[in-house]
Amino acid sequence: MKRLPALLSGLLLALPLLALAVDADALRAGIEKQTDPDAKGLAIARAADAYDAGFGDIRADMEMILYDRKGRESRRQLRTRILEVQGDGDKSMSIFDAPRDVKGTAMLTWSHGVKPDDQWLYLPALKRVKRINSRNKSGPFMGSEFAYEDLGSQEVEKYHHRWLRDEPCGEGLQCWVLEQRPQYKYSGYTRRLVWIDKQHFRPMKVEFYDRKNSLLKTLTYHDYRRYEGHWWRPGRMEMVNHQNGKRTVLIWKNYRFHTGLKDSDFRKNRLKSLK
After folding, report:
1. Domain chopping of the chain, boundaries
2. CATH code for the domain defined by 19-258
3. What is the DSSP string of 171-194?
4. In this predicted model, what pLDDT tens digit does every residue of 183-226 receive, in sequence order?
5. Which of 74, 100, 111, 238 is the most exposed place for a label (fewest CB within 10 A)?
6. Is the bond leading into 99 cis (omega within 30 degrees of zero)?
């Protein structure tokens, strides 16, 4: 099950209506009873996880816009598929449709908890599937400001969570601010600060700190819309790299829920035959 999504957040086929039964007021009340910062941070992360559960699978279209430090841009068109997995992390797949030089490139991610995610990249020019080594997951994905480790669903177990404070976070919203320290090997980050909307348990902003504990990147979420009466998804995400002056914008379109995706749609051998 995915929580606090990054790029592909990415997604309980067996329990498709679970999220609709979650009592948001009860979740918030349970959080506010916590006085220890670590216990409160974990309670917030678990509540966000529970609130977003139950969407089963998602298909969406995406435009990725890469900006260099001088503001020059290049655009890429992708399709994304996400499968929510009971008892483990989500599975996701992204397929590039344009421009021509990246068409057919595909990325498959099986997210896990503390165990390293499994990731494969299909390169059509070489007609081969390349496994992404866990030691290299802090590297950039397809020239963007998103790292490979940003692509997996952000499972609660991946981090040590600590509540830092409450503060306004735009548009009249109040957010909890959490510090999350990776519990998995080979992360490129020492910690993340995450702003979570108290009303709908949505991530609004994430700050990423590098191995020297300097601010590296900031991810912001914009233009949220509610789908099927419950699930909130952003229309735009922007990752700004403060150290190299570059940024990547993701424009999300055509979200479709419960489309019938199956586990067999996310096997490694499917990468070479995608359409």
Report:
1. 19-258
2. 2.50.20.10
3. TT-EEEEEEEEE-STT-S-SEEEE
4. 998 999 999 999 999 999 999 999 999 999 999 999 999 999 99
5. 100
6. yes
